[in-house]
Every structure is written in structure tokens, then in C-alpha cells.
Amino acid sequence: MTAVLVTGGSGFLGSSVVRGLAASGHTVTSADLRLPTTPVDGVGHVFMDVTDAAAVDAGIAAAAPEVVVHLASIVTPGKGSSRALEHAVDVDGSRHVLDACLAHGVRRIVVSSSGAAYGYHPDNGAAHGGWLTEDDPVRGNEEFAYSHHKRLVEELLATARAEHPELEQVVLRIGTILGESVDNQITALFQRPRLLKIRGADSPFVFIWDTDVVAVIERAVTGAATGIFNVAGDGALTVDDIAGLLGKPTLVLPERVLRAALAVGSRLGLTPYGPEQTRFLQYRPVLDNTRLKDEFGYRPTRTSRQAFDEWRMRRGS
Predict the structure, then answer these.
(1) How far is CA 19 from CA 124, 135, 241, 277, in A?
(2) b/e for 199-230, b at 16 or more Cβ within 10 A?
(3) Model pTM greater than 0.90?
(4) Residue 317 pLDDT
(5) Are 30 and 9 in contact (CB under 8 A)?
(6) pLDDT for residue 217 is more than 90
(7) If pLDDT is split at 50, 70 and 90, which confidence band does 283 have?
(8) Transmembrane segments in this chain: where (predicted)?
């Protein structure tokens, strides 16, 4: 069995990963700023602020893990958040965890990245019919904090792979997560009376069920495969597909009209989204999962369509 430390262990994914690893007999330490809502018998807990390099170093030194699962990040900023805080958690925090792993002889680090690291660009996946593979560059847009920060973290990891090959890496570029209790910026789009669509853009989504993500992370801890893997179900759904499944109409707008409306709305404080949001809707990263299945050895239990259908049915939509 393996000694594992999980950053963000009290979070949505982290708590499930901690439970799963403990149930499999691993020695697990959960590291987070807050105690878990439901503690797991036999699991240790260390209070860790990833923005504090000394605290991260001390926590990893004390736990002496063979593997670190790094999940701590800000996915959906709360009120009062700032770009500086998000950078401190996402990027500086990842650097501190990586440095501590190297300093204390950790054998492997498993990192939850995101499909957002590829960025939102009109030529995404041009070489593979619109599908992005792990060999495509990460070009996370600076105007989107989460996307940009995931890109910066992946650049840190790439440097570490070149300079410190003794530290194994499993980097998971995760698609849009759905699950029974998932609420995020994406699911909020689907709960509106009409789904917004930019004229001329299919805006396909790839989905992955939350238990599949947890299973992939658990396998990444002890499996033989290392490297970078897209984590998504088979297939994709366009905005029109999603609207049809929900029985909702679409509101189709030219990009320039929506951009102008968002510019005015954000200036007046009527919306948290700026005009750059049109890129998010137009050029979504569509993840090819071939390497996940063939090299990593995991086949998601649900396709993108099946994951969406289950989310919809559980919500009564």
C-alpha cells in the first residue's frame, strides 16, 4: 500500500478521493485549510495553506508521502475573490507543492489540470478534426484566470519533468465534470430558460461523470502509466444537442452583438462576465480521450451523452 497526501482533501473531489484511497488500504493524509465535513476513519489531516511555502514544506515533510495528489485550486471564485488570490492558490500553491515534493523525495505527483489549459482558440484541434490531443499545446487565455493559471501550472510541471525526471508525474486534463451534486458555471448555463448560442458556433461540450474522475485519480496513484491524459467521456454534445435534450429553446446571437451587450453589462455591474466571454462560448476545447483508454487503461463508465442524461434526470430536467 502507498502513503498518499491529498491537497484540497476536504473539497468536492478531494473528499471522494480520500475516501476511495483509504478504502483501498492506502495510508492517507488529507491536507486542507478546513476540516472534512465527514472525517474518514484512519485518515490523518494537516492544515495546509498552499500559498504558504513553509507550511506546504512542513506538511509534506511530516506526512512523508510516496505520492502527492494535488487538487487544491480555485475553480469557481467566490465573492471577494481576486485575480491575485487565485494566482496565489493556483500557481504559487502548485509551485510550493512541487518544490516540497522534490525536496522530500516524493516519488510521484498527480495533478488535476483542466481542458481549459488548452485555451479557447478558433484553431483548437485543427490537426484532428476539432479534437484536442495531449500533444496539442497548452495556450490558456490570459483573459480567463482559471485557463491561464492552469497553463502556467502546466509550464511549471513541464520544466520539472525536464529537470527532475526522478519525480513521476500524472497530469490529468479534465473536461466538464457532471455529477449528482455538481453545481458550477457550466451547469448554470443549462438551467437558464433559453440556452445561449453564438451564431455559427456549435460550441460542443465534453462531459465526465464525477465518479469517473475520482476513479482516474485513484488509478493514477498506483498505476504504471505516467504522463498527460485528457479525462472526458466519449463523444461531445453541441449547444443544440443540449437544448434538445432539455426541451429548451436557444437564443442565437451574432458574436459582435453579444460582445457589445457584455461590454455594457459588465461596465454597469449587471453581469460578472466581460466581452471576452464570447470566446469561452465559441471555441470550447473538445478533448480526445484515446490516450486515457489505450495508455492509461481507463474507459469512462459514461459517454458525454450518458453523463449529461444522468445529470439531467437526477435534476428532474
Answers:
(1) 36, 33, 35, 36
(2) eebbbbbbbbbbebbbbbbbbbbeeeebebbb
(3) yes
(4) 62
(5) yes
(6) yes
(7) very high
(8) none
Phi, psi for 106 (deg, rounded to 5) = -65, 135
Query: Which residues does 179 contact at the CB level (< 8 Å), separation at least 6?
Result: 209, 210, 211, 311
Which tens digit of pLDDT belongs to each residue from 122-139?
Answer: 999 988 999 999 999 999
Q: Name the grid cell of 19.
A: 475516501
One-letter amino acid at 50 equals V
Residue 126: how many other CB atoms lie within 10 Å: 12
Is 233:208 a contact under the CB 8 Å cutoff? Answer: yes
